[in-house]
């Protein structure tokens, strides 16, 4: 008969049976962080609408509004992530027989995981509205064959400027619906690819504008150049705004991760009663 010897780990080197991650605490912190983010963002939307004014000289400027929005995103991330991380650290189970540095690492990990979980939840909640918004924008950009105001796409405004007659009382020459739809499709195809109108297309557009508006060919060429320049400027401004928003979102996410991790260490230290000794050191 062979005797089986079971070696018990020592009290100093043995690991406790308690799991290293308290998923209940992580989930609670992530849910609280998401809820607080939604509340503060809703308040920010109302605050933003109140500071924007359609009247000249009233309200804040566009630059101030963009910077304020970016800073507000950072503040929201700091507040919600700190509270979520603190709850994740404070509500986790106590680890008996674990070294102090390991406890500190686990608390930091709890805060980071709570932030990551909250970020994933927030992305999932916003996926459907964002997809609808992007899909609606894409449909509006590619649309251009209709002439009704309710189905107008983003390029219709530029075509309106092109085909505006200097003599509104006189009927415009040519088939208005066909020429308008053709120009909208031409503009949409050109600017969607990030390029300018081809020389042949620009010449054709100028002829259509001259025929529709009664302008001379020189004036029609000038109007086409002005409208194309304005369209390119607006598109560049939209791209820069999207890039700035992406920068602010990235900064807010990184700062949120740091705040959640730091707050979790505080919550865990208060949970174990060791935070005051860390502060004194």
Task: Give the gist of this structure.
With 281 residues, the protein is mainly alpha-helical. It contains eight helices and no strands.
What does this protein structure show overall?
- By secondary structure, the protein is mostly helical.
- It has two domains: 23-142 and 247-280, no CATH class; 149-235, no CATH class.
- It has helices spanning 23-51, 62-90, 100-142, 156-162, 176-192, 199-213, 217-272, 275-280.
- Helix 1 crosses helix 3 (100-142).
- It starts with 22 loop residues before the first helix and ends with a helix.
- Mean pLDDT is 75; it is low at 1-11, 130-150 and 168-174.
Name its key features:
8 helices; disordered N terminus; mainly alpha; 72% helix; 281 residues; 2 domains; single chain
Task: Map the helices and strands.
Elements (H helix, E strand, L loop, with lengths): L22 H29 L10 H29 L9 H43 L13 H7 L13 H17 L6 H15 L3 H56 L2 H6 L1
Give the oligomer, counting copies of the same chain as homo and different chains as hetero. single chain
Shape: rod-shaped
Report the strand count.
0
Helix proportion range: over 70%
Number of helices: 8
Strand content: under 5%
**How many structural domains in the coordinates?**
2
Distance between the termini: 58 Å
Summed over residues and divided by their number, the pLDDT gives a mean of: 75
Largest beta-sheet details: none
Low-confidence stretches: 1-11, 130-150, 168-174
**Helix-strand topology string:** HHHHHHHH
**Structural class designation:** mainly alpha
**Radius of gyration computed on alpha carbons:** 30 Å
């Amino acid at each position: 008969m062979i005797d089986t010897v079971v070696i018990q780990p020592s009290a100093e080197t043995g690991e406790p049976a308690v799991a290293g991650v308290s998923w209940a605490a992580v989930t609670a912190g992530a849910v609280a962080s998401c809820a607080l983010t939604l509340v503060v963002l809703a308040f920010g939307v109302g605050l933003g609408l109140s500071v924007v004014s359609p009247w000249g000289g009233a309200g804040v400027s566009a630059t101030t509004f963009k910077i304020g929005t970016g800073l507000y995103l950072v503040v929201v991330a700091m507040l919600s992530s700190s509270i979520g991380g603190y709850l994740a650290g404070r509500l986790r189970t106590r680890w008996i027989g674990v070294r102090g540095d390991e406890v500190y690492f686990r608390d930091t990990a709890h805060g980071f995981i709570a932030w990551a979980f909250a970020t994933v939840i927030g992305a999932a909640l916003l996926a459907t509205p964002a997809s609808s918004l992007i899909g609606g924008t894409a449909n509006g950009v590619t649309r251009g064959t209709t002439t009704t105001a309710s189905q107008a796409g983003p390029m219709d405004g530029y075509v309106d400027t092109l085909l505006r007659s200097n003599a509104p009382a006189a009927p415009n020459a040519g088939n208005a619906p066909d020429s308008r739809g053709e120009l909208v499709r031409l503009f949409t195809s050109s600017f969607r690819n990030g390029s300018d109108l081809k020389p042949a297309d620009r010449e054709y557009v100028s002829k259509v504008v001259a025929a529709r508006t009664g302008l001379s060919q020189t004036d029609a060429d000038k109007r086409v150049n002005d409208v194309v320049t304005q369209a390119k400027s607006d598109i560049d401004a939209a791209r820069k705004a999207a890039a700035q928003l992406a920068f602010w979102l990235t900064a807010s996410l990184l700062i949120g991760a740091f705040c959640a991790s730091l707050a979790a260490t505080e919550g865990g230290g208060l949970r174990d009663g060791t935070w005051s000794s860390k502060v004194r050191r």
